[in-house]
Every structure is written in structure tokens, then in C-alpha cells.
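Quick start: what a row looks like.
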Amino acid sequence: MVASTKSNYKIKNWKDYNESLVRRGDITFWFDDDVIDAWVHANEESKVGRPFTYSDTAIECLLVLREMFRLPYRQTEGFGRALAQMMQADVTIPDYTSLAKRAAKLKITLDVANRKGSIDVVVDSTGLKVFGEGEWKTRKHGVSKRRTWRKLHLAINPETQEIVAEVLTENSGHDSDQVDELIEQVGVPIDAFYGDGAYDQWKVYDRLAKEEIEAIIPPRKNAKIKQHGNSSQSPLERDEAIRGIRCVGRKQWKEEIGYHRRSLVETTMFRMKCCFGSKLKNRELENQRAESRLRSKILNRFTHLGLPQFEWS
């Protein structure tokens, strides 16, 4: 009888990782001197009508604190007042209605570290609840019609685990329809695109071929070869994947092309829901988009602070 060899792992940079976890809750990391200096500076972008009293930096800072501590808008205003008083910062705090209105129009960057060269991207989507019953009620009495969800589409860099692109849509938004916007958001050349079967559509392959991006996408189980092998034209990437699966089987084909790298984006979604929950606080779609974008930006900041490095045994 062969004894089972279960692999174990441990975090080899625990001291540094522990410090990064502690720093996530450091208020001065988000509400620092640079933010205070830019609190009431006029925005460079011109606008019609009366200029804003508070800069985008001020609004974004308070919204970040709102996401960090999962606060309603009114409590965010009160928290900002107390924080400014404790830090002896000579700033006034915008009221909660200003926060809600400005959030819908705020342009938020994902704070991705500058890197040279091309990258790979791993994409997937997950659901974020707007309102509806909890899991206990659903299991006990079934799902009602009043459950409403939004769909969050993410693209990450598997090397750094940073979120490089993010799109929030209504629940009806199909994964493949968001590929164009995700690619445009990345902003740097892409070598390979990892996605699950939801992206197995010809419009996705055509866009990736146009950008000269390798498609790491498993075809559907009933997929048919489109172009004959004796054709004078260049072989289609999807057809080659189907032939590869027929030769070695789907499981081995996935291992050979490194498809399971795609699980890293699921890890990112798990991290996001652990940090911020699986529910959106806002009710308007534009505010929800700002909310999900801020969560992605904060998660990137967490990534920059440090991630665990595992050692297998």
C-alpha cells in the first residue's frame, strides 16, 4: 500500500507579510500629507459652472476610507471630521450628498505599477449583490425575484497579481462583450490572454488575432473545426486547440498550455470579497462602478504592500 504524499506549504516571508497586513489598516497610509495638501486645490480639468470646492483627491480619499471600513455616506462624513480633528489637519470635510454626487463622475485610476515590456492577462467575472436575501434565506425558502446583481469583470497580470483592467456591468452583460474594453484599459502590449469557456467566441478570437495576442481559451466540448487542415491559409488558433484536445485529452492539454494559471484571477476575486464583502453599497449603476473601481485600486495598493511567498514541502 502506497502512503499518500500530501504536499504542505508555509509562508517563508511571514514577518514582511505580517507587516503589510498591519499597514493596510494604517490611516496615515491613505490620509497622508500629500492628500491634505491637494485637498482644496482646484482641478486642472475645466468645468461648466461653479468650480468644485474639493479636489478629486479629497473625494477619492474619503471614498477609499468608506470602502476600507464599509461605511454609509453619512458615517463617512463623520469619520472624516473626526480623522481631520485627530490629525490636526486644517481641512473641511465635504457632506455626504457631495460625496455621492461626485463619486458618480470620479475618474479613478487602478494605480498599476509602471513596468516595461509586454504582459499576460488573466480574465474572469464574478457577481456582486445589490440587494436581496442572504444565503440562509435562499437555502431555506428558495430564490425570490427581488435579488439583483452586478457583474464584475477583471483582468489581472499573473506575474504581479495586480488588477490591470476592470469593468462593472449589469448582470446581463456577457463576458465576451467586455473583452474590447478590458484590452483597451490594459494600456501595454499583451502576449497571452487566459480565459475560460465563456470567452470561446469568434469575435473574441478575431480581436485577439488583430492585436497579435495568443488565446489560451478552452473550446467548448462540442466545438467543431472551422478551417480544413489542408487549407492554404494560416491555421486558426481555436482549430489547433481542438486538434490538441483530440490528441491528448482536455485535461492534459490544459496542463501543457498552462491554462490553470487562470485560477489566479479567481484568487484575486476571493481576496476582494474577503476585504470588501460580496455586496455593493450603492444603488445607482454609476456609483456602483466607482465603488468597484475603488475596490480594485485599494486591492492593488494591498498587493504593492506585500503578498505571501509560499514554500512547498
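That is the whole record. The chain has a mean pLDDT of 87. The CA atoms of residues 75 and 158 lie 37 Å apart.
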